[in-house]
Amino acid sequence: MVPTQFKNDKDISALNDALADISYIDGYTPSQNDVVIFNALGKAPAAKLAHALRWYNHIKSFGDEKKKFPASKKALSAGAPAPAAKADDDDDVDLFASEDEDEEAQKVKEQRLKEYAEKKSKKPALIAKSSIVLDVKPWDDETDMKAMETQVRSIVMDGLVWGASKFVPVGYGINKLQIMCVVEDDKVSIDLLTETITEFEDFVQSVDIAAFNKI
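The chain above was modelled as a monomer; its predicted structure follows.
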C-alpha cells in the first residue's frame, strides 16, 4: 500500500518499497495520484531511497504539466484493508474432515501457490520508456553548433539512447539544436539529463523539453 502521509522516515521508506517494481503510483502512465503523493512528500527523498528518488525526480521534471495529468482510476487510501481473497471451493472447511484430508488439502493449496508463483516469475518485466525531444539553445550565432551537438551526444547514461537531430532557425541568424532521445524511466532522470547538458557552458545557454511521449 502506498502511504499518503509522510510523518517520519518509515513512511518514506514504505513509499520507496512500493515503487520498487512500478514507475507510477497507479498504472503505467502518470496520474493525479502521482501529484497527490508528490505534493505530500514535499521534498526529494534521501539518495539511499533510490526508487522513491527516481520517481520524485521524474514527476518533478513535468513542471506545470503535472496539472494536466489524468485523474487516477484508483482512489488513494491511507489505511483501507486489502480485500479478502475469495476462497476456492476446494478449500472450504469441513468440520468433520479427518486430519489426513486437512493435510491433503493443505498440500494441494501449497502446490497451487507454488505453480502460480512460478508462472508469475516467468512473465517478462515491462520496461517503461519515454521518447523526448530536447531544444538545446546556444549563446549566439557564433556558437559552433556541430561541436555543441558532439558535446551533447557525448553524454552516456544507462538507459539513454540518442536519436535524430536537426538545427532549427530561431531568428537573427541563430539556430537551436533539436535532438531526440529515448530513455528508460527507471534509469534516467530528465532533470539530471538537462542539467548535464547545460554544464557545457561554452556552448549551451538553455535546454527545454519540446515534446515528451510515453512509449
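Confidence is low (pLDDT under 50) at residues 79-97.
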